[in-house]
Specification:
Blueprint (H helix, E strand, L loop, with lengths): L28 E5 L17 E6 L2 E6 L5 E5 L8 E11 L5 E8 L5 E7 L3 E7 L5 E3 L6 E2 L10 E9 L2 E6 L2 E7 L8 E7 L6 E11 L2
Antiparallel strand pairs: 1-15, 2-3, 3-15, 4-14, 5-11, 5-15, 6-7, 6-14, 7-8, 8-9, 8-10, 11-12, 12-13
Length: 214
């Protein structure tokens, strides 16, 4: 497993862990995980001074103790080209601008796409490049949405549908927009993440993850 610790630049940052599945098992379902003890997928979990990833109370929980840090857990295999991913994401604790969400098309060299929301109702879609720089896919980096449930212990159902260079984002069934990135990644792994800015102490939980054919 690769672990990266980067400063958040504008809307970015990174650290890492892991998960998997093989082919269709129920209709168009490619992978599903409710994080049931003894039945959850093989996530790579770890703990250090900066942050931890752990499966507790049938959820995958990410905790971050340092500022300007992104902590994430990745599905080790398979990698996906086109797919629809949904997950319940809960903001457990931390400053309201703390972020949490999903990563997709994760590359061996460390690049990925990130779809995150914040505890105060904003969302972003950006790309981490191989050189450590960030490319925002929203005009102003972050945008506010009334569809996002704000505050501590709020649970939001996040969804991203990916086909070729096109990406559609949803929160709680409401579309946030369609985006195109012809210069980005064509395939890769998926994962979940949480991030801090100037203040540490973010905790987020993930449950009921589902990946389907788009």
């Amino acid at each position: 497993m690769t672990v990266l610790l980067l400063l958040l630049v504008g809307a970015g940052g990174c650290r890492h862990s892991s998960l998997p599945n093989t082919g269709n098992t129920a209709g168009d379902i490619l992978f599903a995980d409710a994080f049931t003890p003894g039945q959850s997928g093989p996530w790579q979990l770890e703990a250090d001074a900066a942050g931890t990833t752990a499966i507790e109370d049938e959820r995958l929980i990410i905790s971050i103790q340092e500022a300007n840090t992104l902590q994430y857990a990745t599905l080790r295999e398979p990698d996906f080209t086109d797919f629809s991913l949904e997950v319940d994401a809960t903001f457990l604790d931390g400053p309201v601008n703390g972020s949490y969400g999903v990563l997709f098309r994760i590359q061996d060299a460390g690049g990925f796409y990130r779809f995150n929301i914040t505890g105060d109702g904003y969302y972003t879609l950006d790309r981490l490049n191989g050189d450590g720089s960030w490319t925002p896919l929203l005009p102003n980096g972050w945008a506010e949405s009334a569809a996002i449930k704000s505050g501590l212990r709020a649970t939001n159902r996040l969804k991203v549908v990916v086909g070729g260079p096109n990406m559609i984002l949803y929160v709680n069934g409401e579309p946030l927009g369609q985006f195109t990135d012809a210069m980005g990644y064509a395939r890769g792994l998926v994962g979940v993440n949480a991030g801090t800015f100037a203040q540490p102490g973010v905790r987020a939980a993930f449950d009921n993850l589902m990946i389907r054919q788009p």
